[in-house]
Structures are given as C-alpha cells and as structure tokens.
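[[Sequence with tokens]]
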Amino acid sequence: MFALLALLIYLGEVYLMDNGGDLKGKTTKFSPLLYDPYVTYESLVKANPASEVDVRGKGQLVFERNCQQCHQATGLGVAGQFPPLAGSEWVLAEGPNRIIRNVLNGFTGPVTVKGVPFNNNMFAFRDLLSDQDIAAVLTFVRSEWGNSAPVVKPEQVKKIRDATADRSTPWTEAELLKLSERD
C-alpha cells in the first residue's frame, strides 16, 4: 500500500510539473521561471524588462562568436593588425556613433588606436547582426576590460543603420573622424 501511495504521489507531481498546477485551464504549461503573481510567462517578462546585466551577457556571447578571433578575449587585439578595444578612444568616445558604423559596414585601412598604428580590414556585420545584437556587443565592449562608457541602445543602432542604408563600402579612419561622436 505504501509503495502504491508513493507511486501515485510521484505521478501526480510529474503531471503538475508538465501541465501546471491549475486544473481548470487558466494557465499554460508550468515553467520553472514562472512565479506568483504571474499567470503566464509573457506577463512575467512584460513586468520585468531585460536589465543591463542581461544585455551585457548577450553582448559577451555576440563578442565571443564574432569579434574575439581578431580582438582577442582580453580585448587587447593583435599587434599591428587588429586594434585593442580595451582603453581604445574609439570605444570610449562620448557617443557610440562611430563604432556603430564600424560594426555595420566594417572598416578598412590604417587606423591609429592609443597612439599605435594598425592596418587591416574589419568585416561588415550589417546583414548578420540585428540592432539588438549590435547594441549588446557594443555595450559589452564599452564596459569590459576596464572600459567605462554608456550603454548602446538598439534605437541608436537603428538610426545609424537607416541613415547609412545605401552605403556598401567599409569606413576609413578619415571618414569617421570627420563625423561627430554624436552623429
């Protein structure tokens, strides 16, 4: 009898974990992320928007998948080829508008970072990364390795993406320096 009771309790818990605790159909399947007073996962997400920490975490993943090969996990780049992101005046600029353009269309030719010349090409990510991904990776870069610059918002990326939609060539240092950090 004891074994049968234990089996019924176990099967009841399995049912509740798979189908939720509401037997009258008011909720959807049970999610371990769902907690009182939220009835659905959508209502939980709506009440708790993503934090800056979540954005940085996503940005780190985007960095690891797309940028780390050249700029290295330390953000120090590769001497003479790929510039450092750690302490870079381009990264720490008042506004992220120049580096947003770098990510969207890429970069070509010589560039000076922290007084050191580099000469290589950066791949364009316009067609590969969303506005949210670019904002997240730039937020990560601007707050990692001792960098301390404001968050980049997807709206900022979208504005520049739209403004440069007809551009198909990479940027050069001279072109970017003509632009205000806030353009």
Remarks:
- The first helix runs from residue 2 to 19.
